[in-house]
Amino acid sequence: MGTRKTPAFKPLLIAATALALLLAALFLAANTPSEFVSHSSAKTRVDASSSIVGGTSTTASNFPWQVLITANNKEFCGGSLIHPMIILTAAHCLVDDYGNYYEDRPGLVFRAYTGRTRVNAGGVELDWHSARVDPRYDAIRTVYDWGFVSLDSPASAPTLKIAGPDELPLWEPGRKATVTGFGDLYDGGPSSTVLQRVTVNVLADSGCSRYGAAFDGTTQLCAGYIAGGRDACQGDSGGPLSVTGDKGARRLIGIVSTGKGCALHYFPGIYSRVAEPELAEDIQSEVELIESLDDFPDAYSGINVIGSQARPYGCAASIKARKIAEQRVESSERALEAARRTGNRDRIEAAKRSLKNAKNRLSDSRDNSERICF
Ligand code: ARG
C-alpha cells in the first residue's frame, strides 16, 4: 500500500482499522490465558511472553540452546538450555506475582522446545519435569528474575554456559551482545512467527538511569540503545542475552526480564545479571540442588554451567598481529645494525625510519590487543 491515501478512502481505512483492532482484541481476549499471563505489578505491561524489536530473522541452528516455552500451545516465554536437563528462564515466566507456579494451575499445559526456527513447527520437544524459581525473586522489584525447568530426560541440543568470572571482558560495558526470541515485533504488536535476533550494547548501569530506583544494578543488567530502536519486547522474556567470544565460544550474560515499553528512547532493556560472579555461583548451586532433588543420573550430575577461558571476539587475532609486529621490530633492529656496519648514511637513515615505523605499529597493535582482550 502506498503512503498517499485519497480522501474518499480515508474513512474506509479508519473503519477497517477499527474493525481490525476490535477483532484483534477479541482474538486476544479469547486466546490469551489472560488471568495467568498478565501480571498485575508495577510494570507497565507485563506479559510473561515478551519479541524482538528491530531485529532480523534467524534460524534455530544459530542458537541451538534457545528454548521456546509455550502455554497451551501458545508462545509464552524464551529460555536457554544451560544443562542437558535444565532450562534457565525468567522467574516471572514460571510464577505469578504471589509466587504461585503457573504449572500448578489446572488446564494449563506448558511445553518447551529447542530447535524451533518457526514458532509453531519443527524442533524437539523437551521432557518438562518441574519448575523452580530463585527464592529471592521479587515480582514487584523484578529482582533475581530467574528460574529453572528441570527435564525428565536429557535434551540432545548443545548447552549455553554462563559467562564465568575470568570472562568478564566478554560482557563489560561497550561490548555487543545478542538477544533472541519469538516476542513482539514492537510494543503492543504481534509476536514473531520466526526466531528473531538483534544486537544490543551492554551498557553501564548509568544507561538505565531513567528507570530510577526501578533499576537494580546488583541483580539487573542494562543493555540496548539510549536512542532506542532495537530491544527485546513482550514475549522474549526468559530468553538469552548472549555474547560471542573467540573461536565461536558463546556465553550467556543475561535473561530478558523487563523494560518500559520496547525499544524506547532512554529506556534500554533490563536483563537478569546472571553472569555476575556471585549470581552465577548462586545459579550453579541451584543447579546442583536440582540435580540432587530430581535424582538426575550420574552422567548428568555435577555439571558445571559456568564457562571459563573464553576470550573476547577478535582477541586471538589481535595477539597474533601483535606478535608479528614484535618480530618486525626485532628484524628492523637487526637491519639497522647491519646498515650501521656498512657505514652508508642513506642506508642507516632508511633503516632508522623503518624501525620507527615498526615501533609505531607495535605500539598500535599493543593498544589494540589490550583494548580487545581486556
Ligand atoms: N517483562 C517482559 C515480559 O514479560 C519482558 C520485557 C522486556 N522488555 C524490554 N523492553 N526489553 O515479556
Key descriptive features of the protein:
alpha+beta, elongated, Thrombin, subunit H, 27% helix, 2 domains, disordered N terminus, 374 residues, 5 helices, six-stranded antiparallel barrel, binds arginine
How would you describe this structure to a colleague?
With 374 residues, this protein is of the alpha+beta class. Helices cover 27% and strands 21% of the residues. The strands form two sheets. The protein has a seven-stranded antiparallel β-sheet, with no helix packed on it. A hairpin with a 2-residue loop joins strand 2 and strand 3 (74-83). The longest helix is centred in the C-terminal third of the chain and has 29 residues, at 345-373. The chain is elongated, with a radius of gyration of 26 Å. It starts with 8 loop residues before the first helix and ends with a helix. The model is unreliable at 1-51 (pLDDT under 50). Arginine binds at residues 46-50, 92, 231-237, 256, 258-259, 262, 269.
Please outline what is shown here:
With 374 residues, the protein is α+β, with helices and mostly antiparallel strands. The protein has helices at residues 9-31, 34-37, 277-293, 315-342, 345-373, and strands spanning 56-57, 66-71, 74-83, 86-89, 110-114, 124-126, 128-133, 147-151, 161-162, 176-181, 196-203, 220-224, 240-244, 250-258, 269-272. The chain is built from 5 helices and 15 strands.
